[in-house]
Request: fold
Amino acid sequence: MSTNGKRDGFSSTLAALMVALGSAVGLGNIWKFPYMTGTGGGGAFLVIYLFFVFCVAIPIMISEFVIGRRSRLNAVGAFRKLTGNPRTPWSGIGFLGALSSYLIMFFYSCVAGWVYSYTFKAATGAFANITKESAGALFAETIGVGGAEASFFSSTVLAPIFWQVLVLVVVGTIISFGVARGIERAIKVMMPALFALLVICVIRALTLPGAGDGLRFLFHVDFKQVTPAVILAAMGLAFFKLSLGMGTMITYGSYFTDDADLSVSPLKIAIADICISMLAGLAIFPTVFSFGVEPGAGPGLLFITIPLVFSQMPFGQLLLFAFFLLTAFAANGAMLSLVEVPTSWMSEEFNIPRKRAALINCVIIGAVGILAAGSADGSGYFGGISVFGKGFFDLFDYLSSNVAMPIGGFCIAIFAGYLMKRGELFDELSNHGTLHNEGRAAFIRILMRYVTPVLVVVILLNALGIIKL
Ligand code: PHE
Reply:
């Protein structure tokens, strides 16, 4: 998008929406949402997650879009311009965003590596005659279970690293050759294809014996098992899912056309994103119950169930290959926006040419990301090391979604709600008065000022045990 350094904007609101959706839709929908709903207890988690999407994520996305379009700059430059102060502490949000991007990329590139590996495995027929047991074994092999007992140079340890590095080579190449535009065009084709394939998965899953139990799990709301940690995880997922609190959407907002309605675009993006997540959930949970997989199985849930969905189905192997290929595309799209954050931050802040900045970032991500690849399972090569009681994989995930992004989002909402003048905010939300949506703008401003930031703080304090909800 901004790979050539030119700020050329998007031809239409639809194009800008699609690109923002390209960042939002990714492994979060297909991998993370289902497994977290599984570990979070099903329906209750879903309800809490949706609450955070509407009361926290959407107001923050509106704030990011407003800040981005008002300034027509990325996160660092935007705060400098809007405050009129080149040394404003608000540009620290840009730094925090770069930090979040790194933390996410460390484990995201690893999971994307598993998806690449599954795409390859599907192409070579590894999933023919798959059973619940062999699916579990295949996943264990993919993530390097038992690596702690092996030497670093064994295939157990090196295979997941190989795929992760391949992911980074692909993403780095796309960024440095400046073909992101082409990829984004590809995503616009791939996204509907992924949608269609998910619908096929759902139909198949719903016709499996015992599918009803999966639906009951997904829609039966029981708040009894909800802990402060589960509430925080649901809020973190809302940030992660919609790529918020780190400046990504500020950059995308800066490309919106003047006539785009920023007060409703985030709602559309969030609803489209929820639809894709729900399709993934509707494909996975009936299968989980039909085959007797543990719903709280964790990060392996997608990788164990999807091969089972397609087993014993006409063209199953071909569809399975298509499924992982499209998931790989969605993951690549999200990663382009992730690597973009530290790349533009680094090139603006330290005057490093974009290409070099992209390369440096991919190397950093690869070097640290190896720690995630070796710790996805406790028995992995680095699985024995724990920091703050967590392995690296979980730590990177936790710090980004549950700490850095909420803090960034809080600051962004405060900036839009308090630092920007009421008239300035309304001007941007109403496209200089042409939309006549004063009432809606006033409502959004109330959310930005009194609801969203308060919720973020309350949930963080609740998780820390400082207050009790
Ligand atoms: N939203 C992406 C997903 O769900 C992940 C992401 C987070 C992308 C933050 C960019 C920034 O897969």
Q: What stands out?
A: Residues 1-6 have pLDDT under 50 and may be disordered. DSSP finds 18 helices and no strands in the chain. Residues 23-24, 26-29, 104, 240-241, 243, 248, 334, 337-338 surround phenylalanine (CB under 6 Å).
